[in-house]
């Protein structure tokens, strides 16, 4: 029930933005909405770091189970990207329903091209790291409450809703694009195929690995749910796996965006459940505003299936 309430609040925030833009006029506050989205993403990332640093014993968790979490993240993300890329190749012949805009690339040196790819994700991840460090080693955020992140998400989706109207984005067409409809399936199948390697790279079984990656980036849900099911260690690993998946997407989305429109599927599937909120602006900035519909649809479906799939493995 809490999951549906959470999704309902996100949908309401988006709808309020749509209504506000229509009432105020779609040609007004365009720059304000765009700047607001970017600024709110930075705030979200910073307070995500603060939230992570607030977890009791987080430093010890990173030291003792970090390697297993890293390996699980790598194999599940690689599986996701492989299946999603295969899906994009199969359905690209139909012509994508979304006209994905890719920024033109300039002729540059190899070092400059590498820097252009890495500078944004490095900046975004550094914001998260700064939040973790300030929470762990300073008393500045003793007042912090995790509910703040939810309010920031609502504000960001309000700006996204305004952007939908201002950019004349329509929700029509998603049912006519088989590739978009299958995006959640690509994410689930790819994640699980990669996780079949769990016993080779971690001390856990395939069943445990499948359960731990089933948060699909929703780290708070997966960690708490698995711990409540009576597996606190696995809950800690799952928390880190899904936190790392979200962090990896900050690097991979800009990189895949540089490679071309075909790589939208791997990018959104790598983002998992976060494609509807935290990584939404990152996806739209690298693949064009018309991918908002597919990204939100994918994130909503992944958020709905995560709490249903996790208990199946425990």
Structure overview:
The chain is mainly α and 314 residues long. It has one domain (2-313). Helix content is 73%, strand content 0%. Helix 2 packs antiparallel against helix 5 (147-166), helix 3 runs antiparallel to helix 12 (264-271) and helix 11 (232-259) runs antiparallel to helix 12 (264-271). The longest helix has 34 residues, at 58-91. Residues 93-105 have low confidence and may be disordered.
Describe, in short, the structure shown.
The protein has 14 helices and no strands.
Top keywords for this entry?
single chain, 314 residues, mainly alpha, 14 helices, globular
Radius of gyration: 19 Å
Number of separate domains: 1
Distance between the termini: 20 Å
Q: How many beta-strand segments? A: 0
The averaged pLDDT comes out at 81
Order of helices and strands: HHHHHHHHHHHHHH
| Helix count from the secondary structure assignment | 14
* Percentage of residues in helical conformation: over 70%
Quickly give the structural class.
mainly alpha
Low-confidence stretches: 93-105
Biggest sheet descriptor: none
Shape: globular
DSSP strand (E) fraction?
under 5%
